[in-house]
Amino acid sequence: MKRISLIFLAFILLSAPLFAPSACALTQDELLSHAVMLVDAKTGEILFSKNPDERLSMASTTKIMTLILSIEMSSPDEIVTVPQCVEDIGLNSTRVPVYYGEVMPLQDLWYGLIFKSGNDAANAIAHHEAGSVEAFVKMMNDKALSIGMTNTQFMNPHGYTQTGHYTTARDMSKLALYCLSNDLFREITFGDVYTMQPTSLRPALTIYHNYAINDYDSMYYYQYSRGVKTGYTAAAGQCYVGAAIKDGREIVVVMLRCGWEKFAKWPEAKKLYQYGFELLESRQ
Question: CATH number for the domain including 173?
């Protein structure tokens, strides 16, 4: 009897890894976000999803499409005279700010778009590229279809709440993967600080891409996190599209409607990044 017990004990000990909970276990119920996609950036493999095809508002993550379209159409040193349509944004819109009549390099608008989430910069870029905001929005929708975003509709270039402006977590992951193949897009959205050139209406302006998850001094810091774009409106809630790079691996996360509290998305993003890397590492 004693020998049988010892053999059984040895079997249990040796088999423990098979019965222990997975280090990278994650369930949908653990997440605040209403919709999530977690994707291996190198293979496109879906590592985790939650309500990936539900149509939701995406707030300023819209600006990801605005940036990539402009990058593909123009050069960063093109000179832009800021059009009057920069004033055609909601009263509580985020601004760089840029002003009607200012003259600046297009690149300054790109950084203002991402770092300051400027709705004014979005309209200026749209007008520069297409002659009007409306024409640029059509380009956005055409581009979306061309990269497989079949469940998305843009109504403006900045993400301010508007009927008919929606996407899905799956579609936003497709957009993120597409954009991250562009070196200039990565340089801008992974950046930390940028100084806009002086204009006739203001001195040089230094702006920051200060997401708490990328801030070494923040309690939410995650060392492998990079960019890309957050968003928030009362209708959309907190939104985030980001990337993380660790040991040669890169993963992309999309989180839509992650509550309404400003910092709630960061612990959740870190949890998803950790899950993704642990899952990939477990396959070695």
Answer: 3.40.710.10
